[in-house]
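Today's session is about reading a structure prediction critically. Students often jump straight to the picture, but the first step is always the sequence itself: look for stretches that repeat, for charged clusters, for runs of hydrophobic residues. Only then move on to the predicted structure, which in these notes is written as discrete structure tokens rather than atom positions. Here is the chain we will use throughout the hour.
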Amino acid sequence: MEYGFGGYPWITPETYRKYSPMTYVDRVKTPLMITHGEQDRRVPIAQAEQYYRALKSRGVEVVFVRYPREGHSIQEPNHQIDLVQRQLEWFESHLSAAKPAQP
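Below is the predicted structure for this chain, in token form.
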């Protein structure tokens, strides 16, 4: 990330803070599903775990799904199927609750 953020975190901490979800965690109200590969080298899973715990402690509806052996994108076919099913169920449950009643 040092190339996109203009340096390492200890050199440009303001840039890292600006783009960190943790900076704005106190504003989140929308239910959230976090999915993460355990072997992600771009975004360490510890960051997702911290975000999950912060949201949970604030009372935000949040679920966390970890995929073993996966990196930044989900590649294993069974994991892809699981991910899509979970996403569809999540959106269905939350969008159906948000729909106005039909006359």
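Discussion point for the tutorial: Helices lie at 13-19, 45-57, 77-98.
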